[in-house]
């Protein structure tokens, strides 16, 4: 099994094969438009614009599982992202990234890059918030919050997991290595 074996739904509900992205470096992110990390959209847009012509794209999966910070339909979220943050990369239908209705893509991503720790600026605060809903968060591979990112190389290998508090400069540096 590889990343290219998965199908997801775009914001119109149409099935999209991730095989369409074969040969590209991908950054897969679960997002929310009403989250404290939402300003990351600005940096993600900058990173996308810098590297899109080199075979890089971001795949954005809105998720409403963390404090209901992704209200509305996928189309409404995409409209907000495009108008407010000038997002041009693909935004897909809202999904669950944990639990009973977890999207199979995220089951795979978490198997390939398990949770290690929450690090970076704001890590202490995020650990406190996460612990309120999952006392045993350190002992599972669940997505801990919005804007967790998975980096996929050109061969489809999931090479790195970035927690929301990790620097986007570090993400950018790792993308440069893969390009």
Protein architecture, described:
- Helices cover 31% and strands 16% of the residues.
- The model has no long low-confidence stretch (mean pLDDT 93).
- With 179 residues, it is of the alpha+beta class.
- The longest helix is centred in the N-terminal third of the chain and has 12 residues, at 40-51.
- The protein has a 4-stranded mixed beta sheet with strand order 4-3-5-6, covered by helices on one side. The protein has a two-stranded antiparallel sheet with strand order 1-2.
- Strand 1 and strand 2 form a beta hairpin.
Q: Mind sketching the topology for me?
A:
Blueprint: E1 7-9, E2 15-17, E3 25-31, H1 40-51, E4 56-62, H2 74-85, H3 104-112, H4 123-133, E5 149-152, E6 158-162, H5 168-178
The tally of helices reads: 5
Biggest β-sheet: strands ordered side by side in the sheet: 4-3-5-6
**Quaternary organisation:** single chain
Rounded to an integer in angstroms, the radius of gyration calculated over CA atoms is 15 Å
Q: For the residues shown, what is the average pLDDT?
A: 93
Major beta-sheet overview: 4 strands, mixed
């Amino acid at each position: 099994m590889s990343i290219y074996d998965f199908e997801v739904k775009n914001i119109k509900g149409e099935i999209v094969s991730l095989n369409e992205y074969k040969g590209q470096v991908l950054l897969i992110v679960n997002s929310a438009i009403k989250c404290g990390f939402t300003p990351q959209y600005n940096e993600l847009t900058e990173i996308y614009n810098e590297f899109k012509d080199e075979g890089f794209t971001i795949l954005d999966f809105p998720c409403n599982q963390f404090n209901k910070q992704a209200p509305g339909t996928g189309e409404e979220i995409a409209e907000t992202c495009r108008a407010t943050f000038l997002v041009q990369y693909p935004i897909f239908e809202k999904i669950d990234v944990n639990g009973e209705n977890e999207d199979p893509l995220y089951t795979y991503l978490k198997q390939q890059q398990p949770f290690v720790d929450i690090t970076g600026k704001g890590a202490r605060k995020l650990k406190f918030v996460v612990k309120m809903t999952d006392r045993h968060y350190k002992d599972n591979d669940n997505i801990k919050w919005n804007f967790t990112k998975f980096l996929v190389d050109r061969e489809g290998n999931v090479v790195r997991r970035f927690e929301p508090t990790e620097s986007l400069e570090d993400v950018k540096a790792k993308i440069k290595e893969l390009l």
